[in-house]
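Colleagues,

Please find the record for the four-part complex below.
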Amino acid sequence: MTEREALAAALELIGQRWALLIVRELLDGAKRFGDLQRALGAPTNILATRLKELTAAGVIHRVPMAHNVLAYRLTDRGGALKDAIDALGAWGAAVERDGAATGS
Amino acid sequence: MTEREALAAALELIGQRWALLIVRELLDGAKRFGDLQRALGAPTNILATRLKELTAAGVIHRVPMAHNVLAYRLTDRGGALKDAIDALGAWGAAVERDGAATGS
DNA sequence: CAGCATCCCGATCGATACTG
DNA sequence: CAGTATCGATCGGGATGCTG
Protein backbone atom coordinates (compact mmCIF):
# COMPACT_ATOMS: atom_id res chain seq x y z
CA MET A 1 0.00 0.00 0.00
CA THR A 2 2.78 2.35 0.92
CA GLU A 3 4.33 0.83 -2.16
CA ARG A 4 2.69 3.34 -4.44
CA GLU A 5 3.61 6.19 -2.14
CA ALA A 6 7.21 5.04 -2.04
CA LEU A 7 7.44 5.17 -5.81
CA ALA A 8 5.74 8.56 -5.87
CA ALA A 9 8.17 9.87 -3.25
CA ALA A 10 11.12 8.54 -5.21
CA LEU A 11 9.86 10.19 -8.37
CA GLU A 12 9.42 13.51 -6.63
CA LEU A 13 13.08 13.44 -5.75
CA ILE A 14 14.76 11.95 -8.77
CA GLY A 15 11.98 12.23 -11.33
CA GLN A 16 12.98 15.82 -12.03
CA ARG A 17 14.69 16.48 -15.30
CA TRP A 18 18.45 15.72 -15.34
CA ALA A 19 18.38 14.32 -11.80
CA LEU A 20 18.84 10.66 -12.69
CA LEU A 21 21.33 11.55 -15.41
CA ILE A 22 23.41 13.41 -12.85
CA VAL A 23 23.35 10.43 -10.49
CA ARG A 24 24.32 8.12 -13.30
CA GLU A 25 27.23 10.35 -14.19
CA LEU A 26 28.47 10.22 -10.61
CA LEU A 27 28.26 6.44 -10.41
CA ASP A 28 31.82 6.18 -11.69
CA GLY A 29 33.33 8.64 -9.27
CA ALA A 30 33.07 12.22 -8.06
CA LYS A 31 32.87 14.94 -10.67
CA ARG A 32 32.88 18.70 -10.73
CA PHE A 33 30.24 21.12 -11.86
CA GLY A 34 31.84 21.79 -15.23
CA ASP A 35 32.40 18.09 -15.87
CA LEU A 36 28.73 17.37 -15.35
CA GLN A 37 27.70 20.33 -17.45
CA ARG A 38 29.79 19.23 -20.40
CA ALA A 39 28.93 15.56 -20.07
CA LEU A 40 25.18 16.15 -19.92
CA GLY A 41 24.74 19.36 -21.86
CA ALA A 42 22.34 20.60 -19.22
CA PRO A 43 21.82 24.33 -18.65
CA THR A 44 24.00 25.58 -15.83
CA ASN A 45 21.18 27.10 -13.82
CA ILE A 46 19.16 23.90 -13.84
CA LEU A 47 22.23 21.87 -13.06
CA ALA A 48 22.88 24.09 -10.04
CA THR A 49 19.27 23.70 -8.93
CA ARG A 50 19.34 19.90 -9.25
CA LEU A 51 22.65 19.61 -7.43
CA LYS A 52 21.21 21.65 -4.60
CA GLU A 53 18.08 19.51 -4.44
CA LEU A 54 20.02 16.27 -4.60
CA THR A 55 22.33 17.52 -1.88
CA ALA A 56 19.39 18.48 0.32
CA ALA A 57 17.86 15.06 -0.27
CA GLY A 58 21.07 13.35 0.81
CA VAL A 59 21.64 11.71 -2.56
CA ILE A 60 24.91 13.49 -3.25
CA HIS A 61 27.18 15.67 -1.20
CA ARG A 62 29.75 18.36 -1.90
CA VAL A 63 33.33 17.39 -1.25
CA PRO A 64 36.11 19.99 -1.25
CA MET A 65 39.02 18.83 -3.37
CA ALA A 66 41.46 21.67 -3.03
CA HIS A 67 41.48 25.41 -2.55
CA ASN A 68 38.50 26.71 -4.51
CA VAL A 69 37.87 23.31 -6.05
CA LEU A 70 34.91 21.16 -5.05
CA ALA A 71 33.35 18.05 -6.47
CA TYR A 72 30.08 16.18 -6.12
CA ARG A 73 30.03 12.62 -4.90
CA LEU A 74 27.23 10.12 -4.38
CA THR A 75 26.23 9.26 -0.84
CA ASP A 76 25.31 5.70 0.09
CA ARG A 77 21.74 6.61 -0.64
CA GLY A 78 22.77 7.90 -4.05
CA GLY A 79 24.71 4.74 -4.82
CA ALA A 80 21.63 2.72 -3.97
CA LEU A 81 20.06 4.15 -7.11
CA LYS A 82 22.38 2.10 -9.30
CA ASP A 83 19.95 -0.79 -9.57
CA ALA A 84 17.13 1.47 -10.67
CA ILE A 85 19.36 3.29 -13.15
CA ASP A 86 20.62 0.04 -14.62
CA ALA A 87 17.08 -1.30 -14.95
CA LEU A 88 15.87 1.84 -16.68
CA GLY A 89 18.92 1.96 -18.90
CA ALA A 90 18.45 -1.66 -19.92
CA TRP A 91 14.83 -0.96 -20.73
CA GLY A 92 15.74 2.09 -22.79
CA ALA A 93 18.36 0.08 -24.68
CA ALA A 94 15.82 -2.64 -25.43
CA VAL A 95 13.36 -0.07 -26.73
CA GLU A 96 16.00 1.50 -28.95
CA ARG A 97 16.84 -1.92 -30.35
CA ASP A 98 13.26 -2.78 -31.22
CA GLY A 99 12.38 0.60 -32.62
CA ALA A 100 10.13 3.17 -31.01
CA ALA A 101 6.64 1.93 -31.86
CA THR A 102 6.61 -1.82 -31.41
CA GLY A 103 4.30 -2.89 -28.64
CA SER A 104 2.78 -6.27 -27.87
CA MET B 1 28.50 5.38 -24.41
CA THR B 2 25.11 4.42 -25.73
CA GLU B 3 24.42 3.56 -22.13
CA ARG B 4 23.84 7.17 -21.22
CA GLU B 5 21.72 7.71 -24.32
CA ALA B 6 19.61 4.67 -23.48
CA LEU B 7 18.82 6.06 -20.06
CA ALA B 8 18.09 9.47 -21.53
CA ALA B 9 15.77 7.90 -24.09
CA ALA B 10 13.99 5.93 -21.39
CA LEU B 11 13.53 9.05 -19.30
CA GLU B 12 12.10 10.97 -22.22
CA LEU B 13 9.39 8.34 -22.52
CA ILE B 14 8.58 7.41 -18.95
CA GLY B 15 10.25 10.25 -17.09
CA GLN B 16 7.19 12.43 -17.64
CA ARG B 17 5.01 13.09 -14.65
CA TRP B 18 2.53 10.30 -13.82
CA ALA B 19 3.88 8.03 -16.54
CA LEU B 20 5.64 5.55 -14.29
CA LEU B 21 2.79 5.69 -11.78
CA ILE B 22 0.37 4.75 -14.53
CA VAL B 23 2.53 1.81 -15.58
CA ARG B 24 2.82 0.67 -12.00
CA GLU B 25 -0.94 0.79 -11.61
CA LEU B 26 -1.35 -1.41 -14.67
CA LEU B 27 1.14 -3.99 -13.45
CA ASP B 28 -1.63 -5.86 -11.68
CA GLY B 29 -3.98 -5.97 -14.62
CA ALA B 30 -5.82 -3.79 -17.11
CA LYS B 31 -7.67 -0.79 -15.78
CA ARG B 32 -10.00 1.84 -17.11
CA PHE B 33 -9.60 5.58 -17.36
CA GLY B 34 -11.66 6.34 -14.28
CA ASP B 35 -9.91 3.67 -12.24
CA LEU B 36 -6.54 5.22 -12.98
CA GLN B 37 -7.83 8.70 -12.32
CA ARG B 38 -9.15 7.78 -8.89
CA ALA B 39 -6.18 5.63 -7.95
CA LEU B 40 -3.60 8.27 -8.85
CA GLY B 41 -5.48 11.51 -8.33
CA ALA B 42 -4.04 12.82 -11.56
CA PRO B 43 -5.88 15.51 -13.55
CA THR B 44 -7.94 14.03 -16.35
CA ASN B 45 -6.35 16.04 -19.13
CA ILE B 46 -2.84 15.00 -18.16
CA LEU B 47 -3.92 11.43 -17.69
CA ALA B 48 -5.38 11.46 -21.19
CA THR B 49 -2.18 12.96 -22.58
CA ARG B 50 0.04 10.39 -20.86
CA LEU B 51 -2.14 7.48 -21.94
CA LYS B 52 -1.88 8.72 -25.52
CA GLU B 53 1.90 9.06 -25.29
CA LEU B 54 2.35 5.68 -23.65
CA THR B 55 0.15 4.11 -26.28
CA ALA B 56 2.16 5.71 -29.07
CA ALA B 57 5.36 4.48 -27.44
CA GLY B 58 4.03 0.94 -27.34
CA VAL B 59 4.14 0.73 -23.55
CA ILE B 60 0.41 0.25 -23.12
CA HIS B 61 -2.45 -0.39 -25.48
CA ARG B 62 -6.19 0.18 -25.50
CA VAL B 63 -8.30 -2.92 -25.24
CA PRO B 64 -12.06 -2.80 -25.86
CA MET B 65 -13.94 -4.59 -23.10
CA ALA B 66 -17.53 -4.20 -24.14
CA HIS B 67 -19.77 -1.76 -25.92
CA ASN B 68 -18.45 1.70 -25.01
CA VAL B 69 -16.10 0.23 -22.43
CA LEU B 70 -12.37 0.12 -22.94
CA ALA B 71 -9.39 -0.51 -20.70
CA TYR B 72 -5.66 0.05 -20.78
CA ARG B 73 -3.28 -2.86 -20.55
CA LEU B 74 0.50 -3.08 -20.51
CA THR B 75 2.28 -4.43 -23.55
CA ASP B 76 5.30 -6.70 -23.19
CA ARG B 77 7.43 -3.61 -23.36
CA GLY B 78 5.41 -2.05 -20.59
CA GLY B 79 5.70 -5.12 -18.41
CA ALA B 80 9.45 -4.99 -18.85
CA LEU B 81 9.40 -1.84 -16.75
CA LYS B 82 8.53 -3.86 -13.65
CA ASP B 83 12.17 -4.27 -12.63
CA ALA B 84 12.84 -0.56 -12.87
CA ILE B 85 9.66 0.29 -10.99
CA ASP B 86 10.45 -2.18 -8.23
CA ALA B 87 13.99 -0.83 -7.89
CA LEU B 88 12.78 2.75 -7.68
CA GLY B 89 10.02 1.81 -5.27
CA ALA B 90 12.45 -0.03 -3.03
CA TRP B 91 14.74 2.97 -3.05
CA GLY B 92 11.90 5.32 -2.21
CA ALA B 93 10.80 3.06 0.64
CA ALA B 94 14.34 3.01 2.04
CA VAL B 95 14.51 6.79 1.90
CA GLU B 96 11.19 7.10 3.69
CA ARG B 97 12.39 4.74 6.40
CA ASP B 98 15.58 6.68 7.04
CA GLY B 99 13.99 10.09 6.91
CA ALA B 100 14.38 12.62 4.13
CA ALA B 101 17.73 14.24 4.90
CA THR B 102 20.10 11.48 5.94
CA GLY B 103 22.94 11.11 3.50
CA SER B 104 26.24 9.26 3.86
C1' DC C 1 37.32 29.99 -16.04
C1' DA C 2 34.21 27.65 -12.46
C1' DG C 3 30.04 28.16 -9.90
C1' DC C 4 26.20 29.99 -9.39
C1' DA C 5 22.01 33.92 -9.56
C1' DT C 6 18.63 36.54 -12.48
C1' DC C 7 15.54 37.67 -16.20
C1' DC C 8 12.63 36.20 -19.52
C1' DC C 9 10.08 33.22 -22.62
C1' DG C 10 7.93 29.06 -24.06
C1' DA C 11 6.42 24.55 -22.62
C1' DT C 12 4.35 21.81 -19.25
C1' DC C 13 1.36 20.97 -15.22
C1' DG C 14 -2.88 21.20 -12.89
C1' DA C 15 -7.77 22.60 -11.37
C1' DT C 16 -11.93 23.15 -13.26
C1' DA C 17 -15.62 23.31 -16.66
C1' DC C 18 -17.60 21.31 -20.41
C1' DT C 19 -19.04 17.69 -24.08
C1' DG C 20 -20.37 12.97 -26.21
C1' DC D 1 -17.77 7.25 -17.74
C1' DA D 2 -14.19 8.93 -20.98
C1' DG D 3 -12.29 12.21 -22.42
C1' DT D 4 -11.53 17.59 -24.52
C1' DA D 5 -11.03 22.77 -23.84
C1' DT D 6 -9.53 26.56 -21.23
C1' DC D 7 -6.65 29.22 -18.39
C1' DG D 8 -3.60 30.37 -14.52
C1' DA D 9 0.53 28.66 -12.17
C1' DT D 10 4.80 26.42 -12.29
C1' DC D 11 8.94 24.59 -14.49
C1' DG D 12 12.61 24.09 -18.00
C1' DG D 13 15.99 26.34 -20.52
C1' DG D 14 18.73 30.03 -23.11
C1' DA D 15 21.20 34.21 -22.34
C1' DT D 16 23.53 37.01 -19.40
C1' DG D 17 25.79 38.94 -15.41
C1' DC D 18 28.23 38.65 -11.12
C1' DT D 19 31.77 36.86 -7.99
C1' DG D 20 36.02 34.42 -6.41
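Chain B has a mean pLDDT of 93.

Comments are welcome before we finalize the supplementary table.
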